[in-house]
Amino acid sequence: MQLTRDSKVLASALVLTFLLTGCATPPPDTSQATKSPVQATQQKQNVYTGSVVGKSNKAKTISISVGKDDQAQTMMVKFDDNTKGLNFAEQGEAAIITWEQRGEDQFATEIKPKLAKLPEGVTEIKVDEMYALVENGTSMTLVDARPESRYAQGHLPEAISIPVPKLKKMGEKALPKEKDTLLVFYCGGPT
Amino acid sequence: MSTTNAGLAKKLGYTNIRVFLDGEPAWSKAGHPVYATNTFVREGNIVLLDLRGDGSPVKGRIPRAVALPYDELDDRLDDIPRNAPVVLYSNSKNETMEAYLELREEGFKQVSLVKGNYQGWVKAGEPVVKGPIFTNEIKWVRQLGKGEVSVADFRKAVAGELPNTFVIDSRTKDEIAEFGIFKNTVNIPLDEIPKRLGDIPKDKRIFIHCSSGARADLAYQELLKHGYDVKFLLLDITDPSCDCEIIKP
């Protein structure tokens, strides 16, 4: 990456991209996580953003995986009848949990779904159009962005496997030479 | 992940990028097929079903496949483990697809097809076996996931036969009052674990259970974070294979 006077803006944009990323599991990330740690910490005070590990109605707790890679931690908060948006705390879904300290416990006050946002200029494909593209043999590179084990078990016809860490490492070597090739990415669903 | 990749590709200069945001779950839910890699078919911990009912499996089949003719699928649904990845093939694309749809409709979540069916497998130069088939039994054993303790080890621990092990029952006090507790076990409900770390020895191996494994998994994550040597039991404790002695209230 070139260092320009815009690099700070770019760094923030990257952080934003990863906050808005579109899959159930937060993408493992090594290169960008360190770009703006202070900013990230400040944003995350009393807020946990990540993938819901599980919810127990009996214990009235929600566990959520926060952070990337080695830094990933599972945080546990309690909830009660006043917690808003409990239905968004579904296992595997990306959520934003706002919490407050009550005595020794952290209580979730509100849970919101973390919605996926597409990078500018990138458009979404719905399942019927996807099916048409595959059936018509449209010339494209279809990329499964999930971990390789998921790809191995079951993937779309003609899809190739490029998990996020692989694309980060290999860059354009992992993709077709022609930059105007239609690239279609998919994973395990939006959240 | 798909949007992350799309963002990366955009930075690399690609100009024609789209994202199928609803992804694989929407694809298979709409009744479209997903395919296993040949490596997964060769080596994965799977149930591989050969649906051909014309006797051709004897002449050549994929190693480890169980012959289960499509006509018998309905009758044998209960023989197929529900949490196993199931991979299907036959000679006919339609037949394979119908079996795929039926299994999905029956609630099997991890079903996929061999690329190009049996013909595709042979064409790809993958190995085949031939000869008489002696059993149609589906044998599949779930492999322990990350952080899981085996039922055998867990039983030893609650029987007091595993030294240096501390077993936690993470159910609520009410559940224990109603159902009892295993021997050699300490009750710390899941929600109390963060504030009761002082009660959990750092120098021992920790096993955690609850009623099904869901809360134990969360408790496991919590203790892992605090540096414990910890495993959890993913099992319905009323399952006969547990067979652990219960102290009744």
UniProtKB/TrEMBL annotation, chain A:
<dbReference type="Pfam" id="PF00581">
    <property type="entry name" value="Rhodanese"/>
</dbReference>
<feature type="signal peptide">
    <location>
        <begin position="1"/>
        <end position="24"/>
    </location>
</feature>
<dbReference type="InterPro" id="IPR036873">
    <property type="entry name" value="Rhodanese-like_dom_sf"/>
</dbReference>
<feature type="domain" description="Rhodanese">
    <location>
        <begin position="136"/>
        <end position="189"/>
    </location>
</feature>
<protein>
    <submittedName>
        <fullName>Rhodanese-like domain-containing protein</fullName>
    </submittedName>
</protein>
<keyword id="KW-0732">Signal</keyword>
<dbReference type="InterPro" id="IPR001763">
    <property type="entry name" value="Rhodanese-like_dom"/>
</dbReference>
TrEMBL record, chain B:
<keyword id="KW-0808">Transferase</keyword>
<feature type="domain" description="Rhodanese">
    <location>
        <begin position="161"/>
        <end position="243"/>
    </location>
</feature>
<feature type="domain" description="Rhodanese">
    <location>
        <begin position="42"/>
        <end position="130"/>
    </location>
</feature>
<dbReference type="InterPro" id="IPR001763">
    <property type="entry name" value="Rhodanese-like_dom"/>
</dbReference>
<dbReference type="Pfam" id="PF00581">
    <property type="entry name" value="Rhodanese"/>
</dbReference>
<dbReference type="GO" id="GO:0016740">
    <property type="term" value="F:transferase activity"/>
</dbReference>
<dbReference type="InterPro" id="IPR036873">
    <property type="entry name" value="Rhodanese-like_dom_sf"/>
</dbReference>
<dbReference type="InterPro" id="IPR050229">
    <property type="entry name" value="GlpE_sulfurtransferase"/>
</dbReference>
<protein>
    <submittedName>
        <fullName>Rhodanese-related sulfurtransferase</fullName>
    </submittedName>
</protein>
